[in-house]
Specification:
CATH architecture of the largest domain in chain A: Alpha-Beta Complex
CATH topology of the largest domain in chain A: Nitrile Hydratase, Chain A
CATH superfamily of the largest domain in chain A: Nitrile hydratase alpha /Thiocyanate hydrolase gamma
Largest sheet of chain B: 2 strands, antiparallel
Helix content of chain A: 40-55%
Oligomer: heterodimer
Number of domains of chain A: 2
Strand content of chain A: 5-15%
Structural class of chain A: mainly alpha
Largest interface: A-B, 42 and 44 residues
CATH class of the largest domain in chain A: Alpha Beta
Largest sheet of chain A: 2 strands, parallel
Strand order of the largest sheet of chain B: 1-2
Shape of chain B: globular
Shape of chain A: globular
Number of helices of chain A: 11
Number of strands of chain A: 4
Strand order of the largest sheet of chain A: 1-4
Order of helices and strands of chain A: HHHHHEEHHHHEEHH
Number of strands of chain B: 2
Radius of gyration of chain A: 20 Å
Strand content of chain B: under 5%
Number of helices of chain B: 3
Helix content of chain B: 40-55%
Chain lengths: 201, 87
């Protein structure tokens, strides 16, 4: 995408988009709130594919999982995923007894090659402070309620080490292929503020 | 079977009608791109047009554009195709 003028004799795309939206609004064909909601859902729910592929492989291949937990960066590089902010990735595995969650208390260190760019809340000072001070409460507010018997471990990513959560494989997914499993994995689950939900059949 | 199943439209990951992505996530470089995208989905959701019809128009619009311009402009197509569906 460039900011250069459109090569044909029509106004640029931004103006045309605006005109289209005004026209549709005038005719009552769209509701701006609905449009806004749809944009947010697609921007947030269509998750990072690279990380999801890594998780799905770990769920289906025990040898891969062992390598991933042992040497995250190298195992992730097997997919060809590497680059800035991915030099030293440590993978922590969620279990029924221990739940891991990742933060960067200093700024917004994040494993880019697998998760892309961090979401806005990850950079929010409130998240960075509260996930350390009161993880259970904050996770519940974010929609993840953990039992009192589940230990919560908070990992502080830095420019040296970036953490990546291997979520629990949901029950009822025994028959799914690696590709189908990857489609279930969300960004929130790989940061540790969510769980991977069982598929709706 | 996937988490995104309850979204109104399952977007193509590959092929000519797949929106611009980075690491699987949608990429909007300017606000109008996301608006046009949202409007298109909203119109489809309200039954103004079927997604497959839109997709056909979209692919045709991209082909027409690319015939004359080697460098494409992703969401322009959404605007063109959504307008055509309206017409």
């Amino acid at each position: 995408m460039t900011a250069e003028p459109h090569p044909h004799d029509r106004p640029g795309p931004a103006l045309r988009a605006e005109a289209l939206e005004s026209l549709l609004l005038e005719r009552g064909l769209i509701d701006p709130k609905v449009v806004e909601g749809l944009i947010n859902r697609y921007a947030n729910d269509v998750g990072p594919l690279n990380g999801a592929k890594v998780v799905a492989r770990a769920w289906t291949d025990p040898d891969y999982k062992a390598r991933l937990l042992d040497e995250g960066t190298a195992a992730i590089a097997e997919f060809g995923f590497s680059g800035p902010q991915g030099e030293h990735i440590v993978v922590v595995e969620n279990t029924p007894d221990v739940h891991h969650v990742v933060v960067c208390t200093l700024c917004s260190c994040y494993p880019w090659p697998v998760l892309g760019l961090p979401p806005a809340w990850y950079k929010d000072p409130a998240y960075r402070a509260r996930i350390v001070r009161e993880p259970r409460t904050l996770l519940a507010e974010m929609g993840l309620t953990l039992g009192d018997d589940v230990e919560i471990k908070v990992w502080d990513s830095s420019s040296e080490v970036r953490y990546f959560v291997l979520p629990e494989r949901p029950a009822g997914t025994e028959d799914l292929s690696e590709e189908e499993l990857a489609a279930l994995v969300t960004r929130d689950a790989m940061v540790g503020v969510g769980r991977v939900a069982a598929p709706v059949t | 079977m996937s988490l995104t199943e309850d979204l109104p439209v399952e977007l193509d990951v590959d092929g000519p009608s797949s929106p611009p992505r980075a690491n699987g996530e949608l990429v909007f470089t300017e606000p109008w791109e996301s608006r046009v995208f949202g409007i298109t989905i909203a119109l489809h959701q309200d039954g103004v047009f079927a997604w497959d019809d839109f997709k056909e128009q979209l692919i045709a619009a991209i082909a027409r554009w690319e015939a004359g311009h080697p460098d494409g402009e992703g969401y322009c197509y959404y605007a063109c195709s959504a307008s055509n569906q309206q017409a």
